[in-house]
Design a protein that fits this description.
Elements (H helix, E strand, L loop, with lengths): L26 H11 L6 H43 L2 H13 L2 H34 L11 H12 L1 H9 L2 E7 L8 H19 L5 H19 L10 H32 L17 E2 L13 H29 L11 H13 L1 H10 L4 H18 L8 H17 L3 H4 L2 H12 L5 E7 H13 L5 H20 L4 E7 L4 H15 L7 E6 L2 H14 L3 H9 L3 E7 L1 H7 L1 H22 L2 E7 L11 H6 L9 E7 L1 H7 L2 H17 L3 H13 L1 H19 L4 H8 L2 H4 L23 H10 L4 H4 L2 H8 L2 H10 L1 H15 L3 H8 L5 H22 L9 H29 L10 H19 L4
Parallel strand pairs: 1-2, 1-8, 2-3, 3-4, 4-5, 5-6, 6-7, 7-8
Helix pairs in contact: 1-2, 2-3, 2-4, 2-8, 2-38, 3-38, 4-7, 4-38, 4-39, 5-6, 5-9, 5-26, 7-8, 9-10, 9-16, 9-26, 10-13, 10-16, 10-18, 11-12, 11-13, 11-14, 12-13, 13-14, 14-16, 17-18, 17-19, 18-19, 19-20, 20-23, 22-23, 23-28, 28-33, 33-37, 34-35, 35-37, 36-37, 38-39
């Protein structure tokens, strides 16, 4: 699916730490760097960017902290490179000694320097990726067969014929749902600074070498890097849910609102060539954007009904402003004279209706657009959209009214011969309204099933209800208000966490009736199956749920559609990553078969996070590994934290990502892909059975060991992560971690990542593969079974980001040699088996660009890990902190290092 030159955001990044600061003059230092970088080819343009940005950072460090600060950063940098390159205990101990030698104030500054470095290298990497995408855009035919919607559609036509392929394209749907899980460790101010640097880097590329514009761009970059250095890297307080809503809105304002129509256009261009833009497009508006930000109240007491109302209002305001600007922009260019392009009777009627309602505005628009009827009508539509935003009398009551008006203009232009205007700019407007409506994001509510049960019990008792139950009822009133103001798509999906019985779903409808009686909102109740047991019980629960009158009525109104959500986080924490992956596949297979036999149009909603322990990894390969009929042209998943900005924060990358995922979604249901996936699953079912049983046993031997939970909290910075002002949602359910159930899946994954162990993504796989034992058959399975191949490839990446020497230091913080050795033994066993199956003598040798990216990052992440370990030891052992600063200072150093490691590894939780 993905060329090695086009890495998945956050997973396979082409990164070079080369010359993070000005090139050292010491000959031994040069030899160290040269030996480390030997044989690791980096694109010249990216090498130049990193050198330039690194030199600018070095200058800032000298100006801000003097030559001594710069020298200390260089000492640690060279020591960690040498330790990584030589793989000797002496070299590693020298690097650790340097980290320990710093004063607490200096350690703080060095951690900040490495964190700034990673931000700059990430920027250079993204910039290089955009370069590659733009170069490809000018060289048609370079993509792989399944890499774009256009090529996937061409392949589909050969398998199912023109008519069926067209039907499937029309039904295509890609539905990412943005969530506010706290894995984006950097502040919004830091993100904004990096975005400004990106714009300056683009200006630098366009400037003449040695000219005044190049000099100006460098001067401004130096100023921006100084801002980045001087901006406090840690938030002073946790963001509110409304803050999180506004942060996500930045992605829409800067990228998605204008980019998505360009995705549609590019696909239409590829499918129809010169005809595109002069006749009606064949590409539907297949993207829908969902959001849990401001709607997900499961375990987050700060998300209230008033927050949900405000979140919807903020999103609506953003999209209406965007539509208003787009209508004005295209309207101003539509200077088509009535003589050559006469308006239709319907367009004339539109204008007359507007003029009667708004005579003064109509007079102004008429004066600005004499003899240009289509121009003044589009400007009139912009005025009505503005009225909608303000709530004025002349507002649209629903987006379908605006769509009707736009199609009226489009038909008039086409009938008058101005087809390129009709199916050019006006078509882009239509696509934007079809995609975003007046709501921008389809806001979804999520709540725990036990909260519903408790609320119903109170309501049934006849006694006074609690504030929590009143809040539960108020949520339904908020949904009803949002639907009334912005349409049914604006809100209506209600996700029930920990669905364990069909009654958990019926409870939602019962509560809606308690809140509003016959005026209850239209609801699509979505079960979320999270634990291993719940995944196994899912088909039976669904079969009962669809017999309920509320489900039957809603499904009848939507063409027998049903949505089911699968939780990756808790299932992995429940039984381990291997058994969870196998259980998720089996659950999808059974649910899809049940839906097909029942004539139900199923959409599976994947609760994937950014890290492997939460279902992360390239979405494309995951889609093509799904069971038959579980995709059927519809793919919905959660996107959170750093993944949102990595995949959607830059227009060219967002276009590429959407095109790739949509291509995989279209192709997953092709007869050949479904046949291959199904036959492989049956052929290797015995292997799956052995892997499931043995991996669970191994996982339980660790997590069910007496004292595991407090040990885990000791050997990782889990407790301290809870102090980071990352997101509004609490990191755990109770006051302390006495068992694994007390901990949310996100900090579970994040903490193992920070400890450079990544246990949540791989533990148990080595034992599972060893239990199968037949290496030749496992190599065959890796080659032919998409599910196993995806699992192994993801684990290879996860293990490549681990570091056994660093991991041993963290594990030594706990007084449990037995548990520490269990982790290390499984790490070694898993690495050995993954290398056997993928080939070569090291991890990722079958993916050389990804391998190089990880190898080049590792020693720099090591530097931050050594600083984090120093702080963690001091916090765990007060005696070790003597003379090294107070707990607050150590805690600050630790939290700074958390932010830096997150930036360096690029996938956290």
């Amino acid at each position: 699916m993905r060329s090695e030159h086009d890495p998945e955001p956050g997973y396979s990044r082409t990164v070079t730490p080369e010359h993070a600061f000005p090139e050292p003059t010491d000959t031994s230092a040069i030899r160290i760097i040269g030996r480390f970088e030997a044989g690791r080819g980096i694109p010249d343009a990216m090498r130049s960017d990193v050198r330039m940005l690194g030199a600018l950072l070095g200058q800032v460090l000298r100006e801000a902290g003097g030559e001594d600060l710069f020298a200390d950063v260089e000492r640690l940098r060279l020591a960690t490179i040498q330790a990584y390159d030589e793989e000797t205990s002496d070299a590693f101990e020298r690097a650790a000694a340097i980290a320990e030698s710093f004063s607490i104030e200096r350690a703080d500054e060095v951690a900040r320097a490495f964190t700034c470095y990673f931000h700059l290298v990430n920027l250079a990497e993204e910039h290089q990726r955009v370069r590659v995408l733009r170069e490809r855009a000018g060289q048609p035919g370079r993509e792989d067969a399944a890499d774009t919607v256009a090529s996937a559609y061409a392949r589909l036509k050969t398998e199912v014929g023109d008519e069926e392929a067209r039907r499937r394209l029309e039904g295509l749907r890609f539905h990412p749902v943005f969530t506010a899980h706290p894995t984006e460790a950097r502040r919004r101010a830091v993100s904004s600074s990096i975005r400004r640097l990106s714009e300056l880097l683009t200006q630098h590329d366009a400037a003449s070498e040695g000219g005044s514009e190049e000099h100006r761009a460098r001067r401004r970059m130096l100023e921006e890097i100084d801002t980045l250095w001087r901006t406090a890297p840690l938030r002073a307080q946790k963001p509110s849910p409304t803050d999180e809503v506004r942060t996500v809105m930045g992605v829409f304002d800067e990228t998605l609102f204008t980019t998505v129509p360009h995705v549609y256009r590019r696909i239409d261009d590829a499918l129809r060539g010169d005809e595109s833009g002069s006749t009606a497009p064949v590409v539907p508006a297949f993207v829908r954007i969902g959001s849990w930000v401001g709607g997900d109240r499961d375990g987050n007491p700060f998300v209230t009904a008033s927050v949900t109302r405000e979140a919807s209002q903020i999103a609506s305001d953003h999209v209406l402003r965007g539509l208003e600007r787009a209508l004005e922009r295209i309207g101003r260019t539509l200077t088509l004279d009535a003589e050559d392009t006469p308006p239709s009777a319907a367009v004339s009627a539109l204008w007359e209706s507007f003029a009667a309602a708004e005579p003064r505005t109509a007079e102004e628009l008429g004066a600005r657009s004499p003899g240009e009827p289509h121009r003044r009508v589009l400007l009139a539509l912009a005025h009505r959209v503005a009225a909608t935003r303000r709530g004025d009398e002349q507002r649209y009551s629903r987006p379908e009214e605006l769509l009707d008006d736009l199609r009226t203009v489009q038909s008039s232009l086409a009938d008058a011969g101005a087809k390129r205007h009709a199916f050019g700019g006006v078509q882009h407007l239509i696509w934007q309204v079809e995609t975003y409506g007046f709501h921008l994001t389809e806001l979804e509510v999520r709540q725990h099933s036990q909260v519903h049960a408790k609320a119903l019990a109170e309501l049934s008792s006849g006694e006074a209800i609690s504030a929590q139950t009143e809040e539960v009822l108020e949520v339904f009133r908020a949904i009803a208000d949002i639907q009334r103001d912005r349409g049914l798509r604006a809100a209506g999906r209600y996700v029930v966490s920990f669905t364990q019985a069909a009654s958990d779903l019926a409870n939602v409808y019962a509560l809606a009736r308690h809140a509003l009686g016959d005026d209850a909102p239209v609801l699509d109740v979505v079960p979320l199956f999270e634990t291993f047991a719940d995944l196994q019980a899912a088909p039976g629960i669904l079969a009962e749920a669809v017999t309920f009158p509320e489900f039957r009525e809603r499904m009848a109104a939507t063409g027998n559609r049903l949505e089911v959500m699968l939780g990756y986080s808790d299932s992995s924490k429940d039984v381990g990553p291997v058994a969870a992956n196998l259980a998720l596949y089996e659950a999808q297979e059974k649910i899809a078969l049940w839906a097909q036999e029942s004539g139900i149009a199923l959409t599976l909603f994947h609760g994937r996070g950014g890290a492997l322990g939460r279902g992360g990894g390239p979405a494309n390969s995951a889609i093509l590994a799904q069971p038959p009929h579980s995709v059927d042209g519809r793919f919905k998943l959660t996107e959170q934290g750093e993944v949102i900005f990595a995949r959607y924060g830059e227009p060219a990358i967002a276009m590429r990502h959407i095109d790739q995922v949509a291509a995989a979604t279209l192709l997953a249901s092709s007869p050949t892909v479904e046949k291959h996936t199904s036959e492989a699953a049956a052929r290797f079912a015995d292997i799956a059975s052995v892997m499931d049983r043995s991996s669970r046993e191994r996982f339980f031997s660790l997590v069910k060991a007496e004292g595991f939970a407090p040990w885990f909290a000791t050997v990782t910075p889990m407790e301290e992560i809870g102090l980071l002002a990352l997101g509004s949602r609490p990191a755990r359910r109770g006051l302390s971690v006495e068992s694994l159930e007390d901990l949310r899946a996100i900090p579970w994954v994040f903490a193992w990542t920070q400890a450079r162990i990544n246990l949540a993504g791989w533990f148990g796989l080595g034992t599972a593969l060893a239990a199968v034992g037949d290496e030749a058959r496992l190599i065959e399975a890796y080659r032919d079974w998409p599910l196993l191949r995806t699992m192994i490839d993801n684990v290879a990446m996860s293990l490549a980001k681990t570091d056994e020497r660093i991991a041993r230091q963290y594990l030594a913080l706990g007084d449990r040699d037995d548990l520490a050795q269990l982790v290390l033994d499984e790490m070694t066993l898993t690495r050995e088996w993954v290398i056997r199956l993928t080939g070569g003598v090291g991890l990722l040798e079958n993916k050389p660009i990804l391998q190089r990216a990880v190898q080049l990052r590792t020693p720099y992440v090591d530097a931050l890990s050594l600083l984090q370990l120093r702080a963690l030891r001091a916090l765990r052992d007060p005696a070790a902190a003597a003379g090294s600063g107070a707990d607050d200072e150590q805690r600050r150093l630790l939290l700074l290092s958390v932010s830096g490691v997150a930036a360096g590894l690029q996938n956290t939780g």
